[in-house]
Amino acid sequence: MHKTLALALLAATALSVPAFADEASAWRLFVGDHTAPEVTALDLETGNAITTFPLAAPASLYTVDGAVFAVQGAGNQVSAIDSGIAIDDHGDHGDIDITDPTLVDAVLSGEKPAHFVEHDGKVALFFDGSGLVSLFSADAWAHDGVLEIEELDSGTPHHGLAVPWGDYTLVSVADADDEKKPRLGLNVLDADGNVVGETHACPDLHGEAASGNMLAVGCGDGLLIVSGSGEPSVEKIDYAGLPEGKVTTLIGGQGLQYFLGNYGADKVVIVDPAEAEPYRLIDLPTRRVHFVTDPVRPKFAYVFTEDGQLRQLDVVAGEFTQAVTVTEPYSMDGEWSLPRPRIAVAGDVIAVTDPNEGKVHLIDAESFTITGDIAVEGLPYTIVAVGGSGTVH
Fold first, then answer.
1. Total-model pTM
2. Which neighbouring-strand residues pair with 30?
3. ∠ at Cα 218 (260, 164), nearest 5°?
C-alpha cells in the first residue's frame, strides 16, 4: 500500500471512530421555590442538590438548548442559567460535555416580564407592565453571556405574548382605551416593527405553543393556526363540535405534530389542525392541575389531577393508559397561584414537585411506578429538566 494512502486511511479511521470514547447520560432538574427567590439545581442520578441560585423573586422556568431561563414577574427581571450540560450533535453521534451549572451575570430587566416564547433558538419575552417585547438569542445569552436585545412595542401594556417567526414577530393586541386592556387579536410585525396586513381577531387571546412547523394560539372563539416559512399564514379554526368553553393553555407535541390544551376545569383537548375534525375532548375524573407532553415518547402526555394522581395519556388513541398516585390530594379550590405540583420529563423519568411535602417524586416512564424521591428545602414548585446522552472523549 502506498505510504500516503495508508496515512490517509489511518487519519480517516481516527476521525470516524472516537478515541477512548465512553457513552454517558446526565440529567439535571432545576426547581423554583414557590415563595423564596431561588432556583435549585439537582443531580437526577444522585438526588443531590448541586447548588442554589439566588434570584430577585420566585420564578417561572423555561429551557432552551441546555439553558434555563427564570422569569421573575414580581422582580421585574429575567435571569439565564447555563445548565452545565451541553450536547454537540455530530450527525452519527453527539458529544456530551458536563460542567457545573452557572448563573449568567447579564440580566434582562423590564416591567412585569411574563410570556417567554422560543422559536428556532430566538426568544420573545413579553413585558405585561409596558407592552414591550424583547427579542434575543437564547444561546448567546446563556452560553456566551452576550445579551443583545431587539425591542418592539405591542401598543399598550397588557397580559400579552409575542412569538418569533423567522424575520417576523407575532404580537398580541389589546384595547388601549379600556382600562381592563382586553386582548383583541394578533398582529404580524416585520423586521422593522411595522404591522403586516390586518389584525387577526382573537378575543381573550391567551396561550400558545409550537409543534413542528406550526403554531397555535388560544382565543375565546377558536384557535389561530400559524404556518409558513416566510411571512406567516394565519387561519382560525373555531371550536366546532365542542361544548361551550375555550383553550387558554397549550403545549405542542414533540415528534408528533399535535397540540394539547385545557378545556374547562376537568377536560383536556387534543388538537390536530390537519384533520377535518381537529378536536378530541378528553374527560378527566377530577380537576386538572398540570400537564406536559413527552419529548422522548411522542405519543404520550401526562396530566396531574387534584386527587394526587399522575395519568398517562395516549394522544394517538385518545385515552388514558396508566395512572399512579403520587401525592396527597391538591384541591383546585382557591387562588390559581397557590403552590401545587408541576411536572417535567427527564429522559426515562417523570419528575413531579410536591410543595406540601418538600419533595420531588420520580416516576419511571415505562413501568409508571414511583422509583424515588428527592427532598428539597422550602416549597418546590416550578420545575424543568435538562440533559441527555452522548459521547465523552
1. 0.92
2. 41, 384
3. 95
